[in-house]
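*** Residues and shapes ***
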Amino acid sequence: MSISKTRQKLVDVARQQFAKKGLENTTMNDIALASGKGRRTLYTYFKNKEDVYYAVIEAELERLSDRMDEVASKKIRPQDKIIELIYTHLDMIKETVVRNGNLRAAFFRNIWMVEKVRKNFDEDEIDLFRKVYTEGKAAGEFDIENIELVADITHYCIKGLEVPYIYGRLGHGITTEASKPLVAKFVYGALGKTSLK
């Protein structure tokens, strides 16, 4: 097994262990045993459990980033791309948190740790929004004076919606499909887009 495959296996096993037992109740020995690798192998790649936890968060953010890149590269109108990016971000964050069981408590409790690892993802996402806004402005779909600022605002607004979205507190029971036209109207209004067509 190659070095990167071994490391990836250790990260996958650690995520499963953290999800099942929680961050605090999982030991390096648990991860080594569950992976079928020795502790020496685990310590070759990670100096401690916090290091493993960072790698797990990075892997989860990588999944989200790959999905966002797929959406951004779609051959659809920029106005549709923005709405799809917003929902992809929120849906993937929710799916990640739900998928990770007991680990989700650590995500919220250790938010500063998550933020530290998340910095690169955040910068990449803002860059995606910049590109889509530039594309939309060039196509005459958006009336944006400062693309940099609007991309920053979009990213931080979506990021602020993550926890309420995860807990189902947005729209009080409204379905995703029912919410999309309302969100589109709000977003398009902010972007200088008056028509939903």
Remarks:
- The mean pLDDT is 87.
- The two ends are 52 Å apart (CA to CA).
- The first helix runs from residue 3 to 21.
